[in-house]
């Protein structure tokens, strides 16, 4: 049994995906606190905005590794979320930097609900992807 590039890519993807799961859980908790008005929206946006760009970079990085390793199904599964991230980043509020969440408009009920729903969908996707990467890693280890 040896580790090749594909197995290492799956291991890296699983570790990175676990980090993205924690980002999604944090995202859901923050918006739940905003929904119950327990926290200040400015402080919450200041804690959420620094996590946006690392999430996008981490997700893009291991998908590029899948593309290089020739794992087309794993790459194809993540393409819709990558496209969503690109569209979301291009349509972000006009602010300085890479901030995605605007503290002045985040308390609108429709935006708050959509952001929380987005967090739940990302959490579901990352949990599904984690187990898919686990199966892919086992399959890659067996076929080596």
Fraction of residues in β-strands: under 5%
Q: How many β-strands, per DSSP?
A: 0
Structural class: mainly alpha
- Total DSSP helices: 4
Q: Can you summarize the main beta sheet?
A: none
Overall spatial form: elongated
Low-confidence stretches: none
Instruction: Determine Rg (CA atoms, Å).
Output: 17 Å
How confident is the prediction overall: mean pLDDT? 87
Distance between the termini: 7 Å
Oligomer: single chain
Helix content: over 70%
When the domains are counted, the total is: 1
Characterization of this structure:
It is a single chain. The chain has 144 residues and is mainly alpha-helical. It has one domain. Helix content is 79%, strand content 0%. It has 4 helices and no strands. Helix 1 runs antiparallel to helix 2, helix 1 runs antiparallel to helix 4 and helix 3 packs antiparallel against helix 4. It starts with a helix and ends with a helix.
What is the strand and helix layout of this fold?
Elements: H1 5-35, H2 41-69, H3 72-90, H4 109-143
Helix pairs in contact: 1-2, 1-4, 2-3, 3-4
